[in-house]
Design a protein that fits this description.
The chain is an alpha/beta fold. Helices cover 28% and strands 28% of the residues. It has helices at residues 15-22, 26-31, 72-82, 91-95, 142-148, 166-178, 216-226, 240-251, 265-269, 275-280; strands spanning 32-38, 44-47, 50-54, 60-61, 98-101, 105-116, 119-132, 156-160, 183-187, 208-212, 231-234, 256-261, 285-289, 297-302. The strands form 2 sheets. The protein has a 7-stranded antiparallel β-sheet with strand order 4-3-2-1-7-6-5. It has a 7-stranded mixed β-sheet with strand order 10-9-11-12-8-13-14, with helices on both faces. The termini are far apart.
Length: 305
């Protein structure tokens, strides 16, 4: 059965927004990158990095008065829906500013922070929700794969700004590599494979094992111990625990393919948690995505020694 990008998102939205989105052509639906609900303001839909407003008739406008808007109650009901009506169960994610729903779609949360003893414990008065639409783009990583991992798996860091397609690229790299080698995919936020009941909704390769929902550092080390991977893949590294786990993996000779948020190589070099990985030679390649066109690599650095 064909999986369409908005399938998992539409049921969570207010009915009038559902109807408007369903009135779009399938081509337009497939190109939606983000859907933004803001209390008392127009519903935003992002295409090709530009946000437009959604009309009741299922079209787009840049005139706020012609657009759909949502009430505080509608935003709150939508928030309940994305949490599957169990907000407490999602507290950890909410405190990080997002909830991941079925299909690997991440929903960003805007609201009021609640602190206890100096620690963020919850978010209340939800005023905005940003649905980032996950897409599987088969073949988008082919050129990068051919230049880096076709001959033999190697360490690769995919970097780029927000919305540049890092997760989409990793998903396709996982498919390509996982069709030839044993891959362990550590999918902490359930975004790459979008596993449902343990079964990936996206094609991540016939030799790929998915550790869904595992904390990144723990999942990497667990996979090494019990799954004998030839390649390890994970998303969005950046913590000290991530770096320490990857350094252990490097000592065992298993290459890691990962992503990191950065707008340039110079910005990556300033990240204290990543510097030890560069110094140890964990990554043989670094690919910087443009953030303009999906799959467009603006810089490919080789660190072969």
């Amino acid at each position: 059965m064909e999986h369409k990008p908005l399938d998992a998102i539409i049921p969570c939205l207010p009915q009038k927004v559902q109807l408007s989105l369903q009135s779009l052509s399938q081509q337009n639906q497939n190109q939606v990158q983000e859907i933004r609900l803001r209390t008392g303001r127009p519903v935003g839909v992002m295409f090709h990095g530009v946000e437009h407003f959604l009309t009741p008739q299922g079209s787009f406008t840049d005139i706020a008065n012609l657009a759909l808007s949502v009430s505080q109650m509608e935003v709150e009901r939508c928030f309940q829906a994305i949490c599957a009506y169990s907000i407490y169960r999602h507290t950890h994610e909410i405190c990080q500013g997002f909830v991941t729903i079925s299909g690997g779609n991440r929903v960003g949360i805007a609201g009021t922070a609640v602190y206890r003893d100096g620690e963020l414990t919850n978010v209340r008065h939800i005023s905005g929700l940003n649905f980032r639409v996950a897409h599987a783009v088969i073949g988008c990583a082919q050129t990068l794969y051919d230049k880096t991992c076709r001959q033999i798996p190697c360490g690769l860091l995919v970097s780029g700004p927000v919305g540049s397609g890092k997760t989409t690229m990793l998903r396709d790299l996982c498919r390509l590599i996982g069709n030839r080698y044993r891959v362990s995919l550590i999918d902490e936020r359930s975004e790459i494979a979008a596993a449902d009941g343990g079964i990936p909704r996206y094609d991540v390769g016939s030799h790929t094992d998915v550790l869904d929902g595992f904390p990144r550092a723990k999942g990497l080390l667990t996979a090494l111990r019990v799954l004998t991977p030839e390649v390890l893949i994970c998303d969005e590294i950046g913590t000290q625990a991530d770096a320490e786990a990857i350094l252990q993996l490097h000592g065992c000779g298993v290459p890691v393919i990962a992503s990191a948020h950065a707008s340039s190589w110079e910005e990556l070099q300033q990240r204290n948690t990543l510097c030890p990985l560069f110094e140890a030679g964990v990554f043989q390649y670094m690919a910087q995505l443009s953030g303009v066109k999906l799959g467009q690599v603006v810089q490919l650095r080789s660190f072969h020694r």
